[in-house]
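User: Teach me something about this protein's shape.
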Amino acid sequence: MPSSGASRARELAQQVGQVVAVEPLRLGGRGLPQGAVLAVAMSGGVDSSVAAALAAASGVDTVGVTMRLWGTDEMERGEGGCCSLDAVEDARRVCSRLGIAHYVLNMAEHFRSSVVGDFFRQYAAGRTPNPCIRCNQTVKFSELWRRVGAVGATHIASGHYAQVRESASGWCSLHRGVDARKDQSYTLYRSSQELLARLILPLGELEKPTVRALAEALELGVAHKADSQELCFVGGGDHRDVLERELAGEFQPGPITDLAGAEVGRHRGLPFYTVGQRQGLGLQVRQADTEPHYVVRLDLARNTLVVGPWRTLLRGQCQVDDCLFLDGLSPARERSGWAQLRAHGQPVAATWQDAGPGRAAVHFGQPQAAIAPGQSLVLYDGDRVLAGGEIAAVEEPEFA
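Assistant: First, the predicted structure itself:
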């Protein structure tokens, strides 16, 4: 992996220094050793482009790496979102502007099996997955690291809005980004200690307007590029259209019932629904029942969608499986903090208690609505990630 060049690094440092302070070999609040080689995961968007610019400006030997996650036909149709042909070309142009090397890695097969395939399997099982968490865990910071590490990279970076802090003992902890509106620590909670030790997040201490200003100051072509808002493998469409294509033959229409068991409609197939959904149900509720109804439960055994009023979505606790602990303490130790149930959800006071190997029971300070199996629950102490896991089947209370 070639060096970006000391003279270009000094020039970039001067340009970046007009917007934010630049320290040699220091990024995202962390120092890098002499001789470090940093591979920046670049999607062709403004965030990863500025992350690469900050890295090059710090003087660290930097290369840009774009993951090709789709086949050529899909990329040409624009279905790859951040992985389209235009996105790859944007990343290449940014790297040329920064004077750093750019590589494209074909990871389509791995992405399809570990992320897209898992997405379909989870929906088919009546769960609501978060593919971005899965991608961060198995693609960006696992398979990508394996490949770049094999050819000389010592660290890996991305444009995520989160922070990694290292203690005097060398223990690394994951924290929220300074920009609360853009914080992505929730989607990174499955980061192991091994990963955190080599993960650099240059944008963690910045707010989005500053990132845009940096892109403008450096005259990067992506300075005003819109943020991606959809799943990369769905493109601009509806994920239900993809589910219908990929899961054809694996679902059947069936009844929609209220909590008393009375049929109030028909569903098109359970994978098309999630707990808390209100729109698109086509209910035929009683004339006297004026309350809006929501999906309360997906009953796979009976192929039945169960609906009820808003209050029937409320739960005071839930169980999480496949738990990961980032605080270095015993899994059996009780934890208190703030639980976040969705990527941009509002944290709520909660207590985390051991419930057996890899499992925990989480009790909320106040009942929470629309807790969907398959989603992730992440526990924080202030801005620090303590633990997380996937929400298991939620026990249904009895309603009158």
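Now, about its shape. The longest strand covers residues 315-325. The two ends are 66 Å apart (CA to CA). If you'd like, I can walk through any region in more detail.
User: That's plenty for now, thanks!
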